Amino acid sequence: MRAFLMLLLLLLPASAFAQVYKCKGKSGETMYSEHPCDARAEPMKLREHSVPTPIAAPATSEPTVGEEPGQASENASAAAAAANSELEANRAAERSCIANATASVYGPSNDRVSTLQQQMTMLSEQLANAPDAQRSQALRTRMTTFRQAITREHGNAHTQMAAARQRCLEMHRPAQTPAR
Prior knowledge:
By secondary structure, the chain is mainly alpha-helical. Helix content is 62%, strand content 4%. It contains 3 helices and 2 strands. The protein has helices at residues 2-15, 71-128, 133-172, and strands at 21-24, 30-33. A two-stranded antiparallel sheet has the order 1-2. Strand 1 (21-24) and strand 2 (30-33) form a beta hairpin. Helix 2 runs antiparallel to helix 3 (133-172). The radius of gyration is 26 Å and the shape is elongated.
């Protein structure tokens, strides 16, 4: 149980990081989004208020054969610092991997959704000027088809992003050793 809690505590800080993108709307207003607005979008640099997760040094620092009394604790501290440094490097690589995946998945997806929305806007204008009920119904049917395509596109992008996140986690998180 203790090992599970330690694993959970180690995973929480990494899951708290999110990417934020600054976008310009169609009318020029500034918007912020967790998804890139287009393929050229880059995540904003956010201030981090996270505290590095310390790796506990051994409780007893008895010198081994050939070590001075204070040398054992210095070696343990150096080992803990090296492990923390490696952990932070892995987390940074994981965040970078996720940011790249986000841009490569959501950028093209947002472009496709934008195209569908433009087509819906044109259909809406045609609907306002439709001469008869039959034409109006045909336009409404096409608009429904576009709405469904947008919903599918969002679903596909979210599924691809979940898989990409999982790949990033597997690539950049060290394998956990079972607790004894």
